[in-house]
Amino acid sequence: MSTITVQIVSDFVCPWCYVGKRRLDTALAQFEDMDVKISWLPFQLSPDMPPEGKNRKQHYDSIFGAQKAATIMADMAETGKEEGIAFTYTDDAMSPNTLMAHKLMFRAAEQGVDTDSLAEKLFEAHHVHCRNIGDVDVLAELAASEGMDAAEVSDYLSSGEDGEIVANVMKQLRTEQVSGVPFIVLDGRLALSGAQPVDVFVKALNQLQSLLQAESA
Q1: What would the pLDDT profile of 94-151 be if each residue is shown by its tens digit?
Q2: Are 186 and 204 in contact (CB under 8 A)?
Q3: Which residue pairs, CB below 8 angstroms and at least 24 apart, start in 174-181?
Q4: Edge-to-edge strand order for the sheet containing 190-193?
Q5: R_g over Cα of the chain
Q6: How far is CA 108 from its chain centroid?
Q7: Which residues are bridge partners to 190 per DSSP?
Q8: Residue 45 DSSP symbol
Q9: How much is the pTM?
Q10: Can you spell out the DSSP letters for 91-155?
Q11: Average pLDDT, stretch 172-191?
Q12: CA-to-CA distance for 31 and 29, rounded, in angstroms?
């Protein structure tokens, strides 16, 4: 079977994107004979976030109100447990501007780095360890854990290089009616919006497999 592409539009501060990734991983594990190439596309839930970011609790409270924000975070923690994600919220946790994180993923893809593994580490750093993934030093450390050169990554992220390219990709995706994330496209044929249950991903993958088999018959 030819390689199947899976494009994932997401933002690393989006908890449902993390849940969606884990559910998709679980579904894909049921298709061991399927050759899958995953690519990550950038999206920002808060494109106007200042470069230095904001305190996460204050940011959530400003969007939802303190009571609703607390309920959302508690519900998210319960959902995370089902997927093996220990969502954590500390008083000093930040809501970062994620442009730098998306730039890192762009650079990693150019260098042939396992971007799926790097994405997992970015999600974990933000949602589990409450690290600031808008900080160049944090990003360089995560990049180094995937074999990238930390000093080169630091210089790259601190420069304006590729910032406009990544911003234009996000603009184009919004033009194409991607208004929420995660947004997952299977082989350019089937699109799924949101962190769908595992069985929905499995059904879509079965459908895609049937289409490909019919075409090759």
Answers
A1: 999 999 999 999 999 999 999 999 999 999 999 999 999 999 999 999 999 999 999 9
A2: yes
A3: 178/9, 178/43, 181/9, 181/10, 181/11, 181/14, 181/16, 181/17, 181/43, 181/45
A4: 36-42, 4-10, 183-186, 190-193
A5: 18
A6: 14
A7: 186
A8: S
A9: 0.95
A10: TT-EE---HHHHHHHHHHHHTT--HHHHHHHHHHHHHTS---TTSHHHHHHHHHTTT--HHHHHH
A11: 91
A12: 5
How many residues in the chain? 217
| Distance in angstroms (rounded) separating the CA atoms of residues 193 and 182 | 6
Tokens 């950038």 sit on residue: 42
What does the alpha-carbon distance between residue 1 and residue 213 come to, in Å, rounded to a whole number? 8
Pair of tokens at residue 48: 């106007």
CB 60 within 8 A of CB 69: yes
Q: What is the pLDDT of residues 130-144, one digit of tens each?
A: 999 999 999 999 999
Q: Tokens standing for 69?
A: 């924000």
Q: Which domains does the chain have, with CATH numbers?
A: 4-216 (3.40.30.10)
Angle, CA of 108, 34 and 24, to the nearest 5°: 65
Q: φ and ψ at 79, to 5 degrees? A: -60, -40
Q: What is the dihedral of CA 44, 50, 53, 58, to 10 degrees?
A: -90
Residues 6+ apart with CB under 8 A from 174: none
